[in-house]
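Researcher: Going back to the complex we discussed earlier. I've cleaned up the inputs and rechecked each line, so this should be the final set. Can you rerun the prediction on the complete assembly and write out the structure?
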Amino acid sequence: MDKPEQTADSEFRYEAVVKFIDDLIDSGALAPGQKVPSLRKVSKARGVSVSTALHAYRMLESKGVLEAQPQSGFYVSANSVVQMGKPSVMSRSTPVRKVSSGALVANMFELAGDTDLAPLGCAIPSPDLLAASQLDKFLARMTRTRGKHANTYAPPRGVDSLRAAIARRSINWGHAVSADDIVITCGCTEALHLALKAIAQPGDTIAVESPNYFGFLPILQALHLKVTEIPTDSIDGISVPALEVALEKTPVKACLFSSAFNNPLGCLTSEEKKNQVLSLLNRHRIPLIEDDVYGDIFFGKERPRPYSAMEKAKNVIYCSSFSKTVAPGYRIGWIASSGYTDKLAAEKYATTLCGPTLTQVALGEYLNAGAYDNHLRGLRKSFAANMAAVSNTIADTFPAGTRISRPEGGFVLWVELPDDINARAVFDLAIREGICFAPGDLFTTSNNYRSCLRISCGYPWNTQIERAIWKLAELVVVQRNAQT
Amino acid sequence: MDKPEQTADSEFRYEAVVKFIDDLIDSGALAPGQKVPSLRKVSKARGVSVSTALHAYRMLESKGVLEAQPQSGFYVSANSVVQMGKPSVMSRSTPVRKVSSGALVANMFELAGDTDLAPLGCAIPSPDLLAASQLDKFLARMTRTRGKHANTYAPPRGVDSLRAAIARRSINWGHAVSADDIVITCGCTEALHLALKAIAQPGDTIAVESPNYFGFLPILQALHLKVTEIPTDSIDGISVPALEVALEKTPVKACLFSSAFNNPLGCLTSEEKKNQVLSLLNRHRIPLIEDDVYGDIFFGKERPRPYSAMEKAKNVIYCSSFSKTVAPGYRIGWIASSGYTDKLAAEKYATTLCGPTLTQVALGEYLNAGAYDNHLRGLRKSFAANMAAVSNTIADTFPAGTRISRPEGGFVLWVELPDDINARAVFDLAIREGICFAPGDLFTTSNNYRSCLRISCGYPWNTQIERAIWKLAELVVVQRNAQT
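Model: Rerun complete. Updated structure for the full complex:
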């Protein structure tokens, strides 16, 4: 159900105030510790009621952006930049291993759908932050106007109009892809699956970042591929020297790296470094499969350009989806590559034949209508605010020595506990308390990250989440005491 | 757009007359050559206008069910049972081969979407015969009432309500499956892909019927599987003696057979024979993957029961979809198995993670609303009529010695040309004339079926299709003359 007009309006006005203050802080016009304009002033300046302004300030307070001081007013939170160490990095690449993802990953996928748990587990955006109602309106319209026509198999490569819409958007990521070079997939999972199948044979070795998204492991296992993990820093991404050594000593068939905001680290690799990686891969004639599902969720000024848009890009298969930004429920991802399209289309019809037709048509119309960019702007603000609030609360509540990532995009945090506290043991305690997170051991084939955890910040900050983090901090201490 | 009320009404009345006459013929009350009730009589008996009755009789005439005799009236067509030889059967199983499906199959999938071609090629039902508007209404309603809630990842096994609805329907095929044992897939293609992955390793050999659906071959190839083809008759299905010999001499890892109306043969295997096959497989401890996409499209009195519902069923994975009966555009299939569910769910999240949520929810609601069975009844009649009209026209126009299948379900015909006429060469001529069909060489890894073709009867009989078959008959003769 749509909300009544008036509420929608006042919601819009309150968000405008939030954005106004956020922008002042972003631009440096308001520094940490500084007093923000009074409610009276801001209500006059933005043409809103004082109660709307107060609502906006209370929201900024709950996100940890502002702090209220009694009888004085609101101040920019000094905490708004978290002062904690960054998580540690593996010292060297892991040996080549067969992948066996097994029950732990399966359990994680099962827990993803459990709405009774505090939503810090799987990297799923809150339906409240997504544009379901807008997109669904296009879908409902398509059922009326195009339903019969669309009730037939789509081409294996996907519906032409959606491929064209994606090709037009590719300008945003600095790499003009032709619609002919795009294959639509069932989310990024199928995109990665098909890309790996198109390049590698059973027994081949794939290099991935470490830690890497635990969903990669079942794909590699299903395709009978081996893996070597390359040390990756939570700030600036993969270690080029470690990659260089790994490629010298290991016959790597392909690399599978994140384009931006690696899940779980949230790291941002510079363009200079991306070109270094590509030069290295070109020298060894190794193709790169890149996963850019988080690329549109950047907190900085500009969208990070993927590997495929770099000067040195030669043999790159680009994979992405709309699951993290608008419609996890639609399961629409895509691959863009110039040299592999026919091969990928053949792998597509051998795996799922083709994707659903009507949802592709609807998404294409939605993208063409231009609503997506506006939605993305709001979404980035929300995720940044959620992440700041979660970070600040972890900083306030977790034991000293806890390290935490400082992502410039995406919506997950990587936390390293001090004193070798076993995160899997904390997880077992947390699930019993109705709290889900992703323990670090999921994100590797090695024995690393046993004291790490990934926290999803895909849901708007609220008291349930706040209490869950407080509780988590308690359980971390309980586990530390149990270990000593 | 829905049609105006009045038209829909009169369309319904005319269809009732068609059904009335069809039923009289089906029951034997009207025999071939016999005169049918006069227009005046039938209009009185059915409470319709004479022009509606005439419309119904003309339609039955166009389908080859009735023949008009000037100044005399309408008669049951003597041709309505085609008198042609049945296609020949391979003499023995093929040796084990690697599968290489390649460009011909890819070309076929590309042509599937070409609406300029006469639709005798891919096995796609006409959107006019499907229940798109009914199902889409459920989808549109779901966008309004459940859109936000559904805009999240579904469980890898699929949406619970849809799995429950399918489990309830499984009673129709004589095998009460538990919802817990169902995994929803992206059409039957993904179902077969996951089932094969769950059972076989690269290099293993799979036994299939011969000829078999050409879409199997890319799946087997993608999974690095080998194949042996077992002789299969267009009337009563697989040869048990040939299967027995093949299993004695070949280490077959699994069998992949059709439950009913094998595409392209349309054969119907008796329950006795199904139990013989299962006993043989049980003795060799070989699992059976069965493909039942055509099971709901039976022309006889009862739905054929699949292998999984037989007494001897022990190790059977059941695969099906809604693509041939209601929604090829939705891409929803499923697997039902008792021993493999966890393994299949793991293969599912390694391949596509999960299916779209809202379309699953909508299909579940549609099935629960009870409209599907009514739709199926009409659809079976339509396909049977189309198939009869195509068969009769082929009988009238193709060279003497042409053999043709007489399926009791599904909507494809298998035609064997006389005199070693090369069907691939006819195909090349036909495509230039805007006519598509599936040449026989697609349906095997062997050199068989070079003078065979599959004709899809998924579209209602009309003059475009009639002309296409006449033209095809001409081209067959042109090719025969070119060969001699």
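Model: Worth noting: Residues 5-79 of chain A form a domain with the Arc Repressor Mutant, subunit A fold (CATH 1.10.10.10).
Researcher: Good, that matches what I expected from the previous run.
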